[in-house]
């Protein structure tokens, strides 16, 4: 689904404060640190708690394999400044031929700073620009209000609540579901670009 551009491990996205890049073997200790936190794992479907040794290495290998095949795109978040170790991960996974599922996890010390919103926004744009997906879907545990806000800020619309499989949580858990169509993304992007366009003193938008 993803083009050759994203299938090379030099591929990366940039936000105001983050690099989003392929995970590397050297990221394993940092990934294990935040994934081993209960407050991170409990809101995910697949991160086990306790976090077994070697799980981060297996995650990295699987992510790189899926990236290289073009099936999915999983990137780690690293700060542009300060220590450039992984503080989270964000992924788009194929769901059939024309849909992608968005998921992410972020280290607790990075919560409340808008970093998840930056990463999710960049991945949403990448999903629609790099693929022919007609829709992105995502979900959040019903008790995870912060994740819901991140998705809504990125332009996702609430589509309902229901039970979803969560292997690491031992079965099904209630989740809020969200979706964003390509048309909705394009309209939102056009509106944001219009707001950002320079204006002259009379308030008329100037054509570059």
Features:
208 residues, alpha+beta, Aminopeptidase, eight-stranded mixed sheet, disordered C terminus
Q: How does this structure look, described?
A:
By secondary structure, the chain is α+β, with helices and mostly antiparallel strands. Helix content is 32%, strand content 27%. It has one domain: Gcn5-related N-acetyltransferase (GNAT) (Aminopeptidase), CATH 3.40.630.30. The chain contains six helices and eight strands, in the order ββαααβββαβαββα. It has an eight-stranded mixed sheet, with helices on both faces. Helix 1 packs across helix 3. The longest helix is centred in the middle third of the chain and has 16 residues. It is globular. The C terminus is likely disordered.
Brief digest:
With 208 residues, this protein is an alpha+beta fold. It has helices at 28-35, 38-41, 55-69, 115-130, 145-153, 182-196, and strands at 12-14, 18-21, 73-79, 88-94, 99-106, 135-141, 157-166, 171-181. The two termini are 34 Å apart.
Q: What is the highest CATH level, the class?
A: Alpha Beta
In DSSP terms (H or I, runs of 4 or more residues), the helix count works out at 6
Order of secondary-structure elements: EEHHHEEEHEHEEH
The biggest beta sheet reads:
8 strands, mixed
> What is the terminal-to-terminal distance?
34 Å
- Mean model confidence by pLDDT: 94
Count of the separate structural domains: 1
Could you state the CATH homologous superfamily? Gcn5-related N-acetyltransferase (GNAT)
Morphology call: globular
């Amino acid at each position: 689904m993803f083009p050759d551009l994203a299938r090379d491990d030099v591929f990366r996205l940039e936000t105001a404060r983050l690099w989003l890049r392929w995970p590397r073997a050297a990221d394993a200790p940092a990934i294990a640190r935040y994934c081993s936190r209960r407050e991170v794992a409990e809101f995910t479907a697949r991160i086990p708690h306790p976090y077994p040794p070697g799980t981060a290495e297996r995650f990295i290998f699987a992510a790189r394999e899926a990236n290289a095949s073009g099936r999915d795109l999983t990137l780690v978040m690293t700060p542009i400044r300060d220590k450039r170790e992984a503080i989270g991960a964000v992924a788009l996974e194929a769901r059939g031929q024309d849909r992608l599922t968005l998921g992410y996890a972020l280290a607790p010390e990075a919560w409340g700073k808008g970093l998840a919103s930056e990463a999710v926004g960049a991945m949403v744009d990448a999903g629609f620009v790099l693929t022919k997906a007609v829709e992105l879907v995502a979900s959040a545990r019903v008790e995870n209000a912060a994740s819901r806000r991140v998705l809504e800020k990125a332009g996702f619309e609430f589509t309902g609540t229901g039970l979803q499989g969560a292997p690491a949580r031992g079965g099904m858990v209630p989740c809020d579901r969200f979706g964003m169509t390509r048309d909705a993304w394009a309209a939102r992007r056009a509106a944001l670009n219009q707001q950002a366009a320079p204006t002259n003193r009379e308030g008329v938008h100037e054509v570059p």
